[in-house]
Amino acid sequence: MAGLADRFEQFVKKLPETKIMKFVAGRILVPIWASRTPVKPQPGGPHYSVQSGDNVQRMMNLIMPLKDKSAVGRAEAALAIAQNKDEIYAGLDNVGTVHFARFVIVGENICMFSVYDGDFTNYIRDFIATIGCVFDAVVKLVEGGDAVIPSETHVEKFIDWVHAHDLYQVSDQATDLFRDIEAVNGETAITRDLRLLPRDLILQLHVNPNVSLGSGYRAYPGYSVAEVRKQFGIGW
Amino acid sequence: MVSAMVDVADVQGNILQGYRHPRVRHLILSVGDAAEARAWLGATVSGAGGVPQVTSQAPWDEKPSTCFNIGLTFEGLRALGTASQSLASFPTEFVEGMTARALKLGDIGDSAPERWPAPFDKPRDIHVIVSVHAKEVADLDRVQRQALQNARTFRLLGVREGFNFHGDYVHFGYHDNISQPRFAEIHDPEDYPDPQEMAPLGTVLLGYPNNFEGLLWHVPDPVELGHNGTFNAFRILAQDVVGFENYLTEAAKYLLTQAGVDELLPPGAETKIGAGLSREAALREIVAAQMCGRWRNGVPLAVSPDTPDPATPIPEKQLNNFDYAANSSCPYSSHIRRTNPRDAQIVQRVANNSRRLVRRGIPYGPPYDPAKPDGVEAPERGLLGNFIGASLGAQFEAMCTDWVNVGLQDPRVTGSNDPLIGANAPETGWFDVVLKSGRTFRLRSLPRFVRSRGGAYTFLPSVSAIRYLGSLGK
Amino acid sequence: MDDTPSQNCGAQSPSAKNTASPDPSPSQLVDAIIEDFPDHRPGTRPIHTIGIGVGGYFEASDIARNYCRAEHFGGQRVDVSVRFSNGSGSPVQHDGWNDVRGMATRFHLKNEAATDLIAMTLNGFFVRTTREFIDFTTAARQQPVKKETPWQKIWDMLQLKQPLRDPYPGQKESGDAGTLEYANAHPFAQLAVFQAGSIGAPVSYVRAAYHAVHTFIVTGEDGVRRPVRFAWKPVAGVCNTDPDAPPEDDYLQGELRERLARWPARFLLMMTIGESGDALDDPTVPWPAKRVRVVMGTLILDTVPADQQAAAEHISFNPWRLVDGIEPSNDPILLARRDAYEDSRKRRGGTACPFNRSGT
Q1: For residue range B394-432, what is the model confidence (pLDDT) as tens digits?
Q2: Taking every pair of C-alpha atoms in chain B, what is the biggest distance, in angstroms?
Q3: Which terminus of chain C, N or C, has less C-beta within 10 A?
Q4: Three-class HEC string of chain B
Q5: Which residues, at least 6 apart from C16, have a Cβ–Cβ distance to it below 8 Å?
Q6: Does B444 touch chain C (CB under 8 A)?
Q7: Which of C63, C228, C290 should we substitute to test contact with A (largest number of A Cβ atoms within 10 Å)?
Q8: Region A137-160 average pLDDT
Q9: What value does the mean pLDDT take over residues C93-107?
Q10: pLDDT confidence of A188, banded at 50, 70, 90?
Q11: How far, in Å, CA of C157 to CA of C138, rounded?
């Protein structure tokens, strides 16, 4: 009998690694728990804050699904960026608050990753003012983009749309997920059971497939673009 | 783009031009009966049935003894029965309301909405803010009675009353209300010498071009509701005058210990600051002037760096006639330069002039008398502020988040907050007093002098829009 | 904050707090810890009992003095004594078990003065006040471990719930169930409990990052005071043992001896500057990674003293052993540690601080 119990225990121990259990967890358990304890997707981008350290070097991770997911569609997106190099670089110089920015094609998405200073809406609004036409050229290739272009005359909608595509930044401190859930779902939605923290993360990923893991590393946190440029004597 | 002519009789008053009545009473209302509230709105257009008539911006021959205006919160528009499609066309910041934007506005700690007294502790109940302007309290009372004659229409949640006890002076002792956007359609540039461009109407009215080339703010639907309307950040801002004056003293004492203080105040120059002032008292005024960007009498540092009383006096009208040159004597961290950098070099070059606001403020609470210090229970005093612009997000919030606090516009101030109105805290607050040579003295332990004690984002509808709202459901 | 330069070794008494019922005394705090480890051996440390002392030196970075005028940040080499330890208060060594590790550093200054920096592998503490500490240690008392049955594990899986870790071979008791229960009722404790629950075991004492957790106020050469937190970052990198492999009970001290016999181990001392609005006085809340971070210097460890009785057992650290340029914050836990450490030192006959003016 002991042998049987041992074998059962070993079986259970290895169960999570088995194909069948992975299938059950992903295809059955997650949808069941998602319907039993509904979770709203967390808003994208960094939290609002008045602390200056939180207001510099903020990360934007835009993932925008292309309408045409073929190589042709992706090439179109690549071309839209390539043809607007001057616009983008001049715009970035004059917006003045962008540390790094790049466009990346990942699978069927055109992505824009950037590190910027200050308020998100100010950043996007200033950007629309300088290179709205480039935004339009890119966003028109993206699912749902037609409703928010031209950006110059859809400023508020466009900013909201970009915000909705900015990835949720899972907190650097694991248990802050409870706080985020509470903020979006209300207090009653949370269990505050540490052992259910993994499930909370799973259910968030279920409704929010792309997320940023943490707020990201910074080698010299706390300084704005202009502070860095001024300190190096290269003008701001 | 050709600027469309504006029908000023369709725009509510106090937006394009201030009334300059010495008294204001804000009635904070909740809709009691939606149908009656709509009928009431409709009646205010003409003043029918004894309801006060809404004051428009139409020019008057004789200044009316009272003016009457209406602001609506998002919850108010909803309570009035505005169609959901129409509600959805309002900008996010207005939909969410001021309390949801607390972190953007620096409303934290003692200023957090959770600490606001009634009626601002229940922001969703606030639907309508009626503002009555008059010279006499009796007039305010009369208009209030007329406005609230039917007890079912509205519930009166609270009242806030302001009084210009000393012309345009505010509790901190500064001459205020000097710089305002002026509009080519309204103002004669001859009357307002100011190197700043005349502001486009879209600065403050929906449906017109604004300071961003090519950008148009969305006009809420339908057009008769949105056009000629604007948004207002109504703020109740308590001012810690005692704390402010004490800080000036501390700062002056500190500066006196610093080598190089003579560059800031050459020995003997005290009399230029004020007759009979001690060295410490003169330094206090210098610090006060550097924090604001103007001497307390309104004379700009950019024009008169050494004295509030230049040999050739500066007439009232000339107080705005300056720019920020690269070597300007106005500290880059001063209040007026932070909130409106004019043509100064700023980090966000795109944003120069784009965040300008119309300000209509009036003090509340008893004036501060240094001869009679407050008792233990210091009375609350401050400013009832209205910060008006066609886009709360692009103007009021944009200014608060990156300029008033954080200080992103200039690397020399980044990491600090506006010395007068910023969300400062003694642990980390600082302000740089700037010398002519460019050297700075860093004043630390800067506390917060202005606390938020309430407020709401309101939509200031046009007269046509008030008529439209009055006709809903008919 | 008082202005008296602190060389204080627990000589002053904590400022009286204005509360109805008295806060627990230092010796009550020590008793509370001891009760969590029934096999505690009198004369040893009540917690972090098993450890090893090593020696080396610290070299401040060229800008450290701009932020902190304390002697050891002046730039010259400063001798150090470090004690690495396992967190447990049990006299039985289980290096390979899941446990918080400690790193206490003594900087030897001129004229036989000294200052200490006490750090651990958790980046936040469990509680905010001494009363919470009493409740927490009560909750953390050892209980017989209950191994989850396979059926319970299946039920966990179905709930997408984290299964309980199986007890280690030979492990009969644990405080884990109690701390978990406490954390679920007290959100402030959750982060530390969650992290402690899976913190694992480092492959080496010098392959873990150590956090000083509490806020200190440092004063720069220009007189500017800043709230800061310190952390040691191992140059060799952070590396844990395989949590699925059977744990070894005794390897950390031997590993360190062998390692230092071959080459020195180094740590980077990072200092993060807090902002108003950060948890300046709350050790349960780590600061965001977005705060200005200053490289304060490098620690080089190269010797294992032969006299481990002196280097690891008798040496007594105290987070309040500070020098001009560093002051404690108002963190209540930091405040309590001053006298609790002193109480504990006296109980086990640890070496007194030579500058303890009260003569104890």
Answers
A1: 999 999 999 999 999 999 999 999 999 999 999 889 999
A2: 75
A3: N
A4: CCCCCCCHHHCECCCCCCCCCCEEEEEEEEECCHHHHHHHHHHHHHCHHHCCCCCECCCCCCCCCEEEEEEECHHHHHHCCCCHHHHCCCCHHHHHCHHHHHHHHCCCHHHCHHHCCCCCCCHHHCCEEEEEEECCHHHHHHHHHHHCCCCCCEEEEEEEEEECCCCCECCCCCECCCCCCCECCCCCHHHCCCCCCCECHHHCCCCCCCCCCCCCCCCCCCHHHHCCCEEEEEEEEEECHHHHHHHHHHHHHHHHCCCCHHHHCCCCCHHHHCCCCCHHHHHHHHHHHHHHCECCCCCECCCCCCCCCCCCCCCHHHHHCCCCCCCCCCCCCCHHHHHCCCCCCCCCHHHCCCCCCEEEEEEECCCCCCCCCCCCCCCCCEEEEEEEECCHHHHHHHHHHHHHCCCCCCCCCCCCCCCCCCCCCCCCCCEEEECCCCCEEEECCCCCCEEEEEEEEEEECCHHHHHHHHHCCC
A5: none
A6: yes
A7: C290
A8: 96
A9: 97
A10: low
A11: 30
Beta bridge partners of B163: B23
Domain assignment present for A19? no
Structure tokens at C44: 């040893």
Listed by start position, the domains of chain C span: 26-135+199-348, 143-174
pLDDT reading at B295 higher than 80: yes
Listed by number, the residues of chain B in 404-423 with a beta carbon closer than 8 Å to a beta carbon of chain A are 405-408, 410-412, 414-416, 423
Top-tier CATH class for C26-135+199-348: mainly beta
C288:A52 CB<8 A: no
Per residue in A23-81, pLDDT (tens digit) is 999 999 999 999 998 889 999 999 889 999 999 999 999 999 999 999 999 999 999 99
Among A55, A56, A115, A122, the strongest candidate for a mutation testing the B interface, having the largest count of B CBs within 10 A, is: A122
- Residue A21 counted as domain residue: no
Give the strand pairing for A211-213 and A168-170: parallel
Disruptive mutation site among A148, A156, A160, A223 for chain B (greatest number of B CBs within 10 Å): A156
* Residue A3, SS3 per DSSP: helix
Q: Dihedral, CA atoms, C138, C141, C144, C149, nearest 10 degrees?
A: 70
- CA–CA separation, B39 and B473 (whole Å): 10
Please state the domain count of chain A: 1
Residue range C261-284, pLDDT digits in tens:
999 999 999 999 999 899 999 999
B331 has pLDDT over 80 = yes
Tokens 């989850």 locate to C148
Closest Cβ opposite residue B103 in set A49, A95, A224:
A49
- The residue ranges of every structural domain in chain B are 8-238+456-471, 240-355+397-454
Size of interface B-C (CB pairs under 8 A): 12
Which residues are CB-neighbours of B262 under 8 A, at least 6 positions away? none
Percent pLDDT > 70 in chain C is 92
Note down the domain range covering A180.
Answer: 37-236
Quote the pLDDT of residue C2. 36
Neighbours of C308 (CB within 10 A): 17
Nearest CA in chain B to C223: B444
Q: Is B3 on the interface with C (CB under 8 A)?
A: no
Question: Hey, is the C-beta of A221 within 8 angstroms of any chain B C-beta?
Answer: no
Phi, psi of C82 (to 5 degrees): -125, 140
A31 domain-assigned: no
Radius of gyration in angstroms for the set of CA atoms belonging to chain C, rounded to a whole number: 20
Q: Please give the ipTM for the structure prediction.
A: 0.93
Residue A6, exposed/middle/buried by CB under 10 A (0-12, 13-18, 19+)?
exposed
Q: Residue A7 pLDDT > 70, yes or no?
A: yes
- Please tell me the distance from the alpha carbon of residue C120 to that of residue C86, in angstroms, as a whole number: 10
Rounded Cα–Cα distance for residues A24 and A11 (Å): 16
